[in-house]
Amino acid sequence: MTKREKIFYGSVFILLKKDDTYLLQQRMNTGFMDGCYDASASGHVEPNENIIQAAIRESKEEIGVKIAEKDLKLMRILQMNIDMPYIACMYICKKWTGEIVNCEPDKIAELSWYTKTTMPKNLTRGLSALRASDFSEQLAFEYIDEARMNEIILHA
């Protein structure tokens, strides 16, 4: 059997929600969309790790909270084909333990709570797609290429 190249990269996004507010992080020093606001925690799926394990790990590593698998609700699967091909799983989480803290101050400029109406304009691509659906928690799949991203940004 020959070794295959990766067809997609896997990533997870975890969005904490409390009442009508969402916790966002502002990215910095990552080399990708720095200055933009992203989900509460996000990252790549590591080798030998499933998507749920990645979501739980990233939440602990980035914002210091422990999330139980049963408290993660899958809300979006995004196939993003802009710079590199990604399959991104976006979760909403309304229950966690531990105190929220910026565990990566070299990569996260700030952590702040926003409502749909107070949310900053400069969002990452995944969060822009979620905003375009008015943060619907109904499970959905979306394919996002340059044309779709331009359409999302135009209507933001």
List the keywords.
single chain; alpha+beta; Nucleoside Triphosphate Pyrophosphohydrolase; 8-stranded mixed β-sheet; 8 strands
Q: Strands, helices and their partners?
A:
Layout: E1 9-18, E2 21-27, E3 37-38, E4 41-44, H1 51-63, E5 72-81, E6 85-93, E7 108-114, H2 125-132, E8 140-145, H3 146-154
Parallel strand pairs: 1-6, 5-8
Antiparallel strand pairs: 1-2, 1-4, 2-3, 2-7, 5-6
Structure, described:
With 156 residues, this protein is α+β, with helices and mostly antiparallel strands. It has helices at residues 51-63, 125-132, 146-154; strands at 9-18, 21-27, 37-38, 41-44, 72-81, 85-93, 108-114, 140-145. It has one domain (9-154): Nucleoside Triphosphate Pyrophosphohydrolase (Alpha-Beta Complex), CATH 3.90.79. A hairpin with a 3-residue loop joins strand 5 (72-81) and strand 6 (85-93). It is globular, with a radius of gyration of 15 Å. The termini are far apart.
Summary, kept brief:
The protein has 156 residues and is of the alpha+beta class. 19% of the residues lie in helices and 35% in strands.
